[in-house]
Design brief:
- By secondary structure, the protein is mainly alpha-helical.
- The protein folds into 2 domains: 4-235, no CATH class; 247-513, no CATH class.
- Helices cover 61% and strands 3% of the residues.
- The strands form 2 sheets. A 3-stranded mixed β-sheet has the order 3-5-4.
- Helix 7 runs parallel beside helix 9, helix 14 packs across helix 18 (444-469) and helix 18 packs antiparallel against helix 19 (474-484).
- It is globular and about 65 Å long.
- The model has no long low-confidence stretch (mean pLDDT 96).
Length: 563
């Protein structure tokens, strides 16, 4: 007899298989290498078909008797249902018709494909060649998708396209051997013979010449001839078709909560005032005698806070992370097995990129996680931000949480390899503060950098809602960030343009962190001397990245059980 639990697990497994086939790049990152010779489809038909498949999985799910499930299966049911509903709602808003910006997109992701691809045998190289050969088709479909976006009102803001041409031109090379896509063919494992190596090298040079370079040329031509000239001066998501609904869906998607732009905006303003008071207290500790604005100007200009070589910045970063590695057992009972490394953000994308980002390792454990550091324009990379930034992106932030989640073998795959942004980013922001508990931020300038990063996330609540729902201008957002954080103007400008290109995503950080801190306070008060921070972190992390209301339920149940 097939039980309700069997039906649920079979349905979840079927949807996962469909997901892997529809998104082969995601499959590769999960450690599923069956589709390593495929690129996904990128046209409107692909997104319409995927939406139809999600709806088809929704129907049998509703027929399963949820009441007969065990508590763990009931949670899987609820999270699976929410994931399906969330993805269907997102597809209904057609945001996928805006696939590129200076903040990122397939044009900047594809050059890193080889870093997540195995190259252990000849078959792996053949698979990668097949992907290179598919570039022109993928780019052409994406161009048609963007043309459809323009025709239907999903028109990019001009500010989000500045600098995209430079990131494309870096891959339009005369000699294919100088292409980043040739990197895997510069060395081979012993399992690939000399004759095979010669053949693979020739095939790679041909694929780059015939597919990769023409693909980037076509995209650059479309950008300069059609996309940029047809872009809009405005910045607000409210300008899209049914823009208010579009933005509300983005808020729900990224925060997992039913919040209005006005409520988020007010929360941000409240947090800005609170953090500003803390920042002023730290300024007094430094002995600085000028105004707050003068202190910010001092931080942005004094040479003591900056290095002059990329190697020096990477060394400072590595030292911070190695120190934190040694403190992790004081904070956590359960740690991931997968290691991480640090890399420089590639030069072709660095000028318009953020200060740093994290790239997860693969689910099969063959590729480590990577913390990418931006070494472009070193005068915009202050040392007093390194501690907070590194704790956020690597450990105990993104790497610890994501790698640990991937290793939770008792969870279904959709919970191991996907999740909800407000938890992921909320955890990383919460992790910055954990440094205070294990001896970081002893230097008041570094502590000010921590507060500035927290202020940055509070400002996001204000400027994201301000620009997308309340009529704020781009310059108004830049000025607000500049007045309240110590970040450099290059970072601020890149960040504001990222918020324009990615409505709602920036709301996840502070929203998630506030909920996690609220739940920690609840547990500390509820358990008193019996509160164990390491056990509390297990409760947060060993269920994966769940919606914030589900997280609250888990913590309340744990507190009640401990009592």
């Amino acid at each position: 007899m097939t039980t309700s639990s069997d039906q649920l697990n079979q349905l979840i497994a079927s949807q996962w298989q469909a997901w892997m086939q529809a998104e082969p790049l995601f499959a590769t990152s999960c450690g599923d290498h069956r589709f390593n010779d495929h690129l996904p489809d990128a046209g409107e038909e692909h997104y319409s078909s995927w939406r139809a498949q999600l709806v088809e999985f929704r129907t049998p799910l509703q027929k399963i008797d949820r009441r007969s499930l065990s508590p763990s299966d009931r949670l899987n049911y609820d999270l699976f249902e929410r994931m399906l509903d969330s993805e269907i709602a997102a597809l209904d808003q057609h945001g996928y018709r805006l696939p590129i910006s200076r903040a990122g997109g397939f044009h900047t992701y594809f050059p890193d494909l080889y870093l997540q691809t195995p190259f252990a045998n000849m078959g792996d190289y053949e698979n990668f060649l097949a992907r290179l050969a598919g570039f022109r088709r993928f780019f052409d479909e994406s161009i048609e998708l963007m043309r459809l976006g323009v025709r239907t009102g999903y028109i990019p803001s001009r500010a989000t396209l500045a600098g995209v041409d430079q990131s494309l031109q870096a891959h339009i090379v005369d000699d294919p051997a100088h292409s980043l896509f040739f990197k895997p063919f510069e060395q081979f494992p012993a399992s690939v013979s000399g004759l095979d190596r010669e053949r693979l090298v020739a095939a790679a040079l041909d694929a780059i010449r015939r597919s990769v370079v023409p693909a980037y040329q076509a995209l650059l031509r479309f950008l300069k001839v059609e996309y940029e000239p047809g872009s809009r001066e405005g910045i607000a998501a409210a300008e899209f078709p049914d823009g208010a609904a579009f933005y509300r869906e983005r808020i729900q998607y990224f925060t997992t909560l039913d919040l209005s732009p006005e409520a988020i905006h007010q929360t941000g303003q409240t947090e800005v005032r609170r953090i500003r008071a803390d920042m002023k207290a730290v300024v007094r500790k430094t002995g600085f005698k000028g105004s707050f604005g003068e202190f910010i100007a001092f931080l942005r200009s004094d040479p003591r806070f900056y290095v002059t070589t990329p190697a020096a910045l990477m060394e400072k970063t590595a030292l911070v992370l190695k120190r934190m590695d040694g403190e992790l057992p004081r904070l956590f009972k359960t740690l991931p097995r997968l290691p991480y490394g640090i890399r420089e953000i590639p030069a072709f994308s660095a000028p318009g990129n953020t200060a740093a980002y994290y790239q997860p390792g693969t689910g099969d454990g063959t590729v480590a996680g990577s913390y990418y550091v931006n070494t472009y324009d070193l005068a915009s990379r202050p040392l007093y931000e390194i501690e907070a930034l590194s704790l956020h992106e690597a450990v105990p932030g993104h790497h610890l949480q994501i790698a640990l989640q991937q290793e939770l073998g008792d969870l279904p795959n959709f919970r191991r390899f996907a999740g909800f942004t407000s938890f992921v980013e909320g955890w990383a922001l919460y992790s910055e503060r954990l440094g205070l508990e294990v001896g970081f931020y002893q230097d008041p300038y570094s502590d000010f950098g921590r507060l500035s990063y927290e202020m940055w996330r509070a400002c996001r609540l204000v400027v994201d809602t301000g620009m997308h729902a309340m009529g704020w201008t781009r310059q108004q957002a830049i000025d607000f960030m500049a007045a309240n954080t110590s970040s450099t103007l290059l970072n601020i400008t890149n960040e504001v343009d990222r918020y324009i290109a990615w409505p709602g995503q920036a709301l996840a950080y502070k929203t998630g962190e506030l909920k996690i801190r609220e739940l920690r306070t609840l547990a500390e008060k509820g358990l008193g001397p019996n509160f164990d921070l390491r056990e509390f972190h297990d409760v947060l992390l060993l269920g994966g990245a769940v919606p914030l209301d589900v997280l609250e339920e888990r913590v309340r149940e744990w507190v009640a059980g401990r009592k």
